[in-house]
Amino acid sequence: MDGEQWTTYDKTITGNTDADTQNVQPLAAPITCRYIQLVTVDGGWSGTGIGFRFDVLITKTSAASFTRLQQAGSSATTTQQRELVSAGRAIPDASFTTSSSKDEAHSAHFANLGKIVQDGTAHYWQPATDQAGEYVQVDFTQPLEFGGLVTKGGGTGWLTNIQLKYSMDGEQWTTYDKTITGNTDADTQNVQPLAAPITCRYIQLVSVDGGWGGTGIGLRFDVLITKTSAASFTLLQQAGSATVQHKTITAAMQEQLRAFVSIGNFIPDASFTASSELDADHSAVSGNLGKEVQDGTKLFWAPSTDQAGEYLQIDLTQPIEVRGVATKGGGTRWLTKMKVQHSMDGEAWTDYAEEVTGNTDGEGQNLQPFATGFTCRYMRILTVDGGWSAGGAGLRASPLVTSAVGKAYLKAMQAHMQSSMTHSSSSSSQTLDCAKWSEWLAGLMAGPQGSMVPQLAQSCKPVWCKDPAFAEAHAELKEQTCAGGKKREVVEKLRSLLEKIQAKREMENSPHVQKYRAEKKAVAEPVQKRLEKEHNLLDLLQTLIN
After folding, report:
1. pTM reported for the whole predicted model
2. Residues of the chain with pLDDT > 70: what percent?
């Protein structure tokens, strides 16, 4: 916990058998700590020696508060850390453009610090010439609350000072009133939160006179946005509008994809059913691409048998217009092609006219806009002959809809959940096991149904208020949920005081008191001032109670 006293994990971690394959090693149980060390052991390396890259897996609860600011080691305030999240990995390559690029290996999209590349030292943005006025431009694809930057150099060059511009339309630009401090070397990340978030769709990072170091201009950066904006920055951006597999992406198709949103994370688990399931880890609910899972290579839908006609079915709970589908495989399983059916009642099904192209691996997301949308309540994705990988059929999917339909659907689903909680809070608490809050609460709070948590908390109150682990993980929610008795006591005292002041006000305004004041003018003014103070206090008490 302190970097001084160390505890050795009781098992040796299995590493790799080659230099290319990733190996996922979940621990038997999570460990709470601040520091970790990965230590070599006798004979624990390949023939040519030690070579190592690794990523850290954390629980959803911890991930909810672990932002890019913490990763970069920012000196920003705790408030700023909690309010901003990284958006780099969600921005498509096509959104990055530049004034110029030295060559293909230093082109616009390599400026994205959130982009995973095999060698971060080889790929970064570098202009054709080191001069003032060179820029990288980012199109967020939608207006966002932009809150800051994380910058890094590339190779042996970096920017020491940066001019920031922003725009809503990409034509009219406003220059930020402060110069952004850049880097002092090519390797260290620098976090620069803005004084206040700016709402914009486009930003430009522009080089200034003498504002570079080392061998010249080199830049990679990430974008920090508010949590409110992050909630609406959808799967389409995460997948990247230029990553539709098997197709040449036209400008018209990019615009079409940007107009769509994924609704998988709005759809309840109970809406997913299937013709068959391989096992518990490959059940229908694991087929929801919008559902957060710890390891997507393990949790996805797979049928019990690899054959044509197996299907994943989604009940959208209401008729909506579906305009496409986002798909992904899992591990060594994926669908290369598939058939789509839709229905209004779950009984009579209509085939979508075209066979839908699937994936080429288990990792990449594939966005498939439909040539013609359809209105339905139920949707099925079916396997077709030979339409799966050598490892077998595997699928995670999410419907795509227009932004307007997505917003309306979100409101409808929130209302649906609100109604369910209002009429059957005990049913809700049974569906979401209160004692197993660590498995679902963080995801619920971060998702579109987050506004429902306070009401659900009242149902889970008897369990949560007695759970020390819950108090540690969700101190603020615990205080809101479990301190209700104290708050009610304070409110009752305020009400009692309010009643006394109201009674006194009525007495002061009685006819005989008014007559007495008229006769004793000398005391009228002090009495009036005292009454005004009491009236102000009365208004304050009414506000507090309400």
Report:
1. 0.42
2. 69
